[in-house]
Amino acid sequence: MDCQSQKSPPWWETGVIYQIYPRSFQDSDGDGVGDLAGIESRLDYLVDLGVDAIWLSPIFPSPMADFGYDVADYCDIDPMFGDLAGFDRLLEAVHTRGLKLLLDFVPNHTSDQHPWFIESRASRENPKRDWYIWRDPAPGGGPPNNWISDFGGSSWEWDAMTGQYYLHAFLKEQPDLNWRHPELREAMMGVLRFWFDRGVDGFRMDVLWHIIKDAALRDNPINPDWTPNRTQRDRLIQLHSTDQPAAHEIAAEFRALADHYGDRVLIGEISLPNDRLARWYGTPDRPQVHVPVNFHLIEHAWNAESLRHMIADYEASLPAFGWPNWVVGSHDAKRIAARVGEAQARVAAMLLLTLRGTPTMYQGDEIGIGEVPIPRDRVRDPQDLRQPDIGIGRDRSRTPMPWDDSDYAGFSKVDPWLPLNEDWPIRNVTTQHQDCNSLLSLYRTLLSLRRRHAALSIGALVLVDSAEDVLAFERHHDDERLRIALNLGNHARPLPRFASLPTDAHPAEVLCSTLGEPHSAFRPWDGVLAPNEGLIMR
Ligand code: NOJ
Ligand code: MG
């Protein structure tokens, strides 16, 4: 055997990532907001759950206009979360448990309170002026082009003092950096080095496909498919404001730096169709990010037929060396249980953890937090506050983790910054931990199966034709072949005919049923899938 085939895959290919939204994971100091010491106190929960890496949404000093995605200092910790010494303690505690820690790098923009921007806006002659994107008004007056901010309104903010506009793809409190400026670029590479040197295992890179804009800042074309229930941003096609060739160059530089440190991972937040997404892997000679995030499971209609096509298309789009990845929830998306319902949230768990590719779980999805109504006077999400009528609020996915049935669900000693899920007295970690048929127990089972069966993590994937409502595929590695069948509907359905099965096959050994223990055992290969049931079979 040659050495190549003996080489074991990197940890981020076999591992499962768990996203923590630090404001809402665990409060330790009684201010109603989660913090680093709180996260440290819950690490054993994550070990027991069976994940491999933790990604923390931003923990850096920030005025919190966009809850940390407006960074005022890339190399420190916001006092609300702790301090650098506390971070080092957390990192050590993570590593002691054999876990990895990823930070959220926000390269597209800073806070308007970042010292760089304060200098940049001080005068047109300031040496940091061009670290951001400043332009004169359009010839007839008004903003330099037609670009629309992701949070609504023009992407340009007028600065009366220096008589120019600056660009912001998100809030006006989040001015866009100018990645064409060599000094800015070097300063940001220094930020990555700062954290790599401290020992972090990688980064999730916020809106990576945004970081470079068309040099001439041409108008974006009108989107003919826009309808009023969509965001203002979607009125335009972001042709000139995102996914520019030069952004790929920067991704390759990030990767070269990460590779220099060895065994680190870069996850690029990139929301694009498959053909464009695949380019973010780069080439074997000049790789870009390890993981260009695949949002399809979040964006796709939840039905077997369309998911099967989506999975096939995505797999087909990957370059030979490109490793896939999957996600069903995040701090920006509607909760999976709210979107597909409780019964299907269990099927979604099985799908996420049996597809080929690195799964990222989002805190709270493992206990099935569903829709959390946020009273209007408690809305905090700036996107929701600016575009209240289209139901895009992100607060409902950012509510605190309910740990137990004590006051404030064990999250805090005081009323938390966002309300808890209304059903927290019964839907909490402790209750589900005690119930072997809970969603949490299902997640633990699936994660432990994934750890024990290489077919589930690194195995090949073969999609299988199946009856209406059923999504089925095989995963195989070495001699092991596992078969997965998921019923996405609420009628019983025949199990698919797995053509690869030998004719004299023994009945299927059910390694896991989403319906819980009593359903696991043996089942004839021509048996049925119960409504909303998912099976892993051997
Ligand atoms: C994507 C982040 O996930 C989101 O929460 C944030 O508002 C934007 N990027 C801007 O940084
Ligand atoms: Mg706190």
Automatic annotation (TrEMBL):
- As recorded in Swiss-Prot or TrEMBL, the protein's gene is named malL
Its Enzyme Commission number?
3.2.1.10
Pfam family membership, one = Alpha-amylase
- This chain belongs to the protein called Oligo-1,6-glucosidase
**Disordered: where is this region?**
373-397
Q: Which domain of life is it from?
A: Bacteria
Q: Which organism is it from?
A: Novipirellula galeiformis
The alphabetized UniProt keywords are: Glycosidase, Hydrolase
Domain Glycosyl hydrolase family 13 catalytic, chain residue ranges per copy: 19-398
Chain intervals with Basic and acidic residues compositional bias: 374-397
Q: Does the keyword Hydrolase apply?
A: yes
Could you say which residues form the signal peptide?
Answer: none
Biological process terms from the Gene Ontology for this record are:
oligosaccharide catabolic process
Checking CDD domains in the record gives: AmyAc_OligoGlu_like
What does the record give under GO molecular function? alpha-amylase activity; oligo-1,6-glucosidase activity
Enzyme class comes to hydrolase
Family label? Belongs to the glycosyl hydrolase 13 family.
